[in-house]
Amino acid sequence: MSLVAVSLLAGTANMIAHESVHIIRTVVHSTAAAPPSAAASKARSLLTAAIADIKTNDALALTVESYRQASLSRDEVDPSTGRSDFIDARTALQLAAVSVRSAQRETEIKDFLDRGESLGRLAQQRRHSRAAYSSHVESIASRLQSSMGGEWTLFGRVIARQSLIKMHDVLDSIRQHAPSILFDETHGGNLASLIADESQFSELLASSQSTLTGSEGADWVRGVREDFDALVTLRVALTALNSRYDQAALQFAKNSRALLREIAAASDASRLVQDRWSNLAGAAHDLPAPTGSSITETTLERSDPNSARLMALVTAFVMLIIVVISFFTVRSIHVPVRWLVKASNELAMGPARVRVPRGGIRELDFVARSFNDMSLRLESARRAYKEQQESLEEQVLQRTQKLQELAQQDPLTSLPNRRHLAALLDSALDRARRGGRHVGIYFLDIDNFKNINDSLGHAFGDRVLISVAERLNELARGFGFVARLGGDEFTVVYENAESINSIHELGWMLARAFHKLVLVDERELSISVSVGASIFPEHESSAEGLLRAADSALFRAKELGRSQLALFTPELTTSAAARFAIEQGLRRALERSEFELHYQPEINPATSEIAIMETLLRWRLPDGRLASPAEFLSVAEQSGLMSDINTWVLRTAVLDAARWFHGGWAEVRVAINISPRQLLDHRFVERLLALLRELRLPPRCIELELTEMVLQTGPATIAALRELQGHGLGIALDDFGTGYSSLTSMENLPLTRIKLDRSLVARIDTSTRSAAIARAVIDLCADLGLEVTAEGIERPEQLAWFRDKHGILVQGFLLSEAVSFLEFASLKAILHNKIQDLLLSMPLPARAGKDAPLKVKIVSRR
Predict the structure, then answer these.
(1) Distance between alpha carbon 417 and the CA centroid of its chain, in Å?
(2) Predicted confidence (pLDDT) per residue in 183-200, tens digit
(3) Mapping DSSP to helix (H, G, I), strand (E, B) and coil, where does residue 344 land?
(4) Tell me, what's the pLDDT at 859?
(5) Shortest CA distance to 761 belongs to which of 810, 798, 800?
(6) Which of 32, 177, 215, 317 meets the CB 3.0–4.6 Å disulfide criterion with 156?
(7) Taking the model in full, what pTM does it have?
(8) Strands 609-620, 595-604: parallel, antiparallel or unpaired by DSSP?
(9) Which residues in 95-118 are b (16+ Cβ under 10 Å) and which e?
(10) Cis omega before residue 537 (within 30°)?
(11) Quick check: 364 and 329 in contact, CB under 8 A?
(12) Which residues 6+ apart lie within 8 Å of 264 measured at CB?
């Protein structure tokens, strides 16, 4: 194509040279200019006026449109920015109106300006009303949220909580439907829904007014009512404002369209004038002038024929050169391109490395060099990809093996897990069936392992589990295998046992294997295990049934104490079913609030007055019977429900104490049992003190009872007790005299009171040894400044033994059983006379010389 174009260009040049003429002379004559005609002058003036009118009308149309947009958008943007844009547009339109030559047009523009100002005032009123509406909504929401913040309150607040939640939900619905007011959507179902929500909120506020006044205060109720009334008033006003604004905006738009149509019509008329007179003005400009025009004379002559032939020869030579250059150019392009195409196809087929020969024009040689570099990089990338793929396949193989191991092994101890245990046990049972042998299955559980985790940490507890697994592996080597089911539970399988006696002997060997101290992190630790066992085929024939039977036997071993072995019996299945039923009942009891607190009074015999109310937990069963803690606490501990129950007991007891205190009994004291696990929670002290502050209950009204187990939980719990005692709470040591470290407890724990166990009080009137021990403890507590509580006063003779001891409190069935909070008022009315009658009916006991008056408290507890 380039060759053809060059050839045509050369031929054309040759023809022009052959047929061309030369300008050899030019003469110019000039004369004076003549003035234009009258018609031409009129045409030009009319044309100039028409063009000026068109520019004015176009500028006016743009200004009107700018003012319309600024007026309508002033309410939708930032007030300060929208106001500034509106003022600029209004000023521009006012200036444009001055240049309008039509009085009617000027009047229409002024009316258009006034309507824009009126629309702006409506927009400003609506914006202020919207802001006030939102402010009242947030004020109501803030009051409701602040009132719902507390978890526990007193009297009225507890009753009003449900109404507050309902009011908060209705207010959320008002917030959802409020955009129908704030964004002009007032003609749909949203407005009806909003009005319905307002009616519901008003009814809730009216129905709960007395309750809320008692719990939140009259100012709170008055403030919510005022905000809500303002909210309804603003909603009505906004509805009217939106309607007025819509009508004004519609009329404003109509005026702007009419004004723009008139301006467009005027522009069209001016353009007709322009078209009419522009031709006349042009014709007048092109008329020949009789004088003053310029005349040019030109003399032409043809070129020489010899010059034409010379031009033809030169052209032919040039075309030959062009043909040669084109041939080599095409060859230098076509060959390298063919090489590149071939190499690209080869590279696409998959060879690792492809080379393109160098050559051709510079650009294609650069492309070939780049292609070769790309081929090298692709070869390197493919090699790296292959290596990475091989590495990835190896990693996948390793991960698959690891996952298979994890699927069958416990990750902590590397023992078979529950899934692998089932397969191993099935194989062992098959071999036992064929060989007529027995198989023993043992469930092992570490006693009080939770105390190790709580006191020494879970990381240390994991290392204890590893040490236990290693010892069990050593014991099981040669007769079976060990598996870990989870937590601190292990399973040992005794394969091919010859007799039931051998299975029983191995069970005791497992239970006693941990009498030897376990070494963990260079620390010698004393632990014990409980073992439950089942036997194939005597107890069950399937792996699942044998494991279930061994689990039931383990519960029985736990009930027998530490380091015990229990073999499965059919009665254990019934017991396990009963425990399961109790566990499920406890879970429902927490959900349905079936627990109750009863209170047993501790009485001062000297005054016959109640000094302390001890908290006792009861479970109201579906049949109406009250279950005592002895029937369900052990199951609650094993199932992990004890923490939730303890939390409920503490909160409810403190709340009842606050109701007594604020109800007129200023001297009330309530004793609450707490567990060492509660003290291990670092938030326990803070939450208890916060609850007392919330209920405005003095700390002296609460006494915490604990057992000697708290000494095993470390110094952190003792520090927590010291902090509680420092705030004024009483600390009592329960069941004193039944453990082995009671005297150590009196020394290390921050106590205010000692509770003698009922075993010491049971024979205090019949056994001189029991009386001597009780007297010694009382004297010891007197020296240490501690109060004393004796439990189990159930006979008049026991009460008579303590009658002449000053400051002693007595408690027991003889005086009063535990009663509910509602029954306490009637009990308090008759209890004083009952105590007086008991004391008057008793003979005075022989007074010992050492029985000096002591400030001692003696309590009997059911």
Answers:
(1) 34
(2) 654 444 577 888 888 888
(3) helix
(4) 40
(5) 798
(6) 215
(7) 0.45
(8) antiparallel
(9) ebbeebeeeebeebbeebbebbee
(10) yes
(11) no
(12) 57, 61
